[in-house]
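B., you asked whether I could sanity-check this one before it goes into the benchmark set. Here's the sequence:
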Amino acid sequence: MTYHLLVLIFTILYCHSAITQVCNHEGKGSNPDDSDSSKKNPPNPKFKSEVRIQLDSNSVLSAPSGVYATVQFHLSLAPDVNSTRKAHISHFEKFPSRGRHATFVTSVQPETAELGNDLPVTVTVTIFAPDYVPNQTRVLITLIVREKPSNLIERSRQNRILGQRTFYFLVTNWLLKDIDHELPSCQNKFICHNIRDCNLNDDATKNIKKKSKNKQKEDFKPADNCLDHEWIADVIVYDNVIGLKSVQNLQNGNFVDENLLIGSRKTNVVTVKGSCCNPFEVDLNLTDVAGNSNLCHASMNSAPLQITAHWAVCFSLSLICLTKLFF
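And here's what the prediction gave me:
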């Protein structure tokens, strides 16, 4: 009996962890802006990016072997950074383990730059795949922006990363449009949000709970102090064929893909924000590497909890333990 009691306690803790993993923004006022690309792009709350790195919309992330290609990124300081930053720009690439090794990136220009609020910088990455690289090879490349010390005293800080962006580059003889005909998509329900922190009044809360999918947005009634609060939510986005390239929030025009591993065929999570005076929903413009675009609407819809594999395990274990304890 003691054994089954311990299993039941473990099950309760497991279910609790499932809740806390889903709502990782609960009680937080901000969201981590960047991630460690060397670990499959997980959020890294200890790292605060000071430089925004946006892929140029016209850059093509593929080329045949034996052909030079250029990929451009636009660098700018994050909105909360007030002073200029002198930066050293470099790269890291990870070639697939199979086959002969090859170096793809031939140059990154410029190698140094001074970034300010009114001093955006365009960085050009030149890529060349040798003739012996097999067709359909994907190489993982990371653009890294480090702080450049201005004197000897600050030299110890020369490795401090200000920002980084990782993307897949594909070696192929085909046009990406001929490879990928499917549209990118998203999950229409927030997987995590802190919307209850908006301090909604009772009438607003009732209206949201009763709101149906076909009801107009005019039913939304914000709290009186909504200007003092901001909601944050996570949305799952994905493109299973060639991978996502960018995610733009159409409400404010901002790109929300800082954590996006460009070209990844796995699901990604992007973080969106909005004023508590506005409805708790977002319209996203998703664009994949092939250039296919799709509009996606996501909202709180209902409670953020979802029935996942965690809950199937919890329910099964709980039934087994209760049966052993009381029968």
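One thing to flag: Residues 208 and 215 are 10 Å apart (CA to CA). Otherwise nothing jumped out at me.
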